[in-house]
Specification:
With 79 residues, the chain is mainly α. The chain has one domain (10-78). The protein has helices spanning 10-24, 29-48, 54-78. The longest helix is centred in the C-terminal third of the chain and has 25 residues, at 54-78.
């Protein structure tokens, strides 16, 4: 699922898009790992304040995970 198709508030989508961009533009493994940690912290915060449904949490977690995995693969190939 894409971020645009998720049923979450616009403000959450904007912040998630910023985090995804940070992951995608990471210049090294450390940057990518840090950005992945930011994504995880963002999700934990959303869950703690019940800002999104369990389904949306799972979808957003999968999206962050996929983006991070793809970046790590790219960095390994080019590093």
């Amino acid at each position: 699922m894409t971020l645009e198709n998720m049923n979450i508030a616009a403000g959450i989508k904007r912040e998630a898009a910023t985090i995804i961009s940070r992951i995608e533009h990471a210049t090294g493994m450390l940057d990518a790992t840090m950005a992945g940690g930011i994504a995880e912290g963002f999700l934990i915060g959303l869950v703690c304040v019940n800002a999104i449904t369990a389904d949306a949490t799972d979808e957003l977690e999968a999206l962050f995970g996929d983006v991070t995995d793809q970046k790590m693969i790219s960095l390994r190939k080019n590093g």
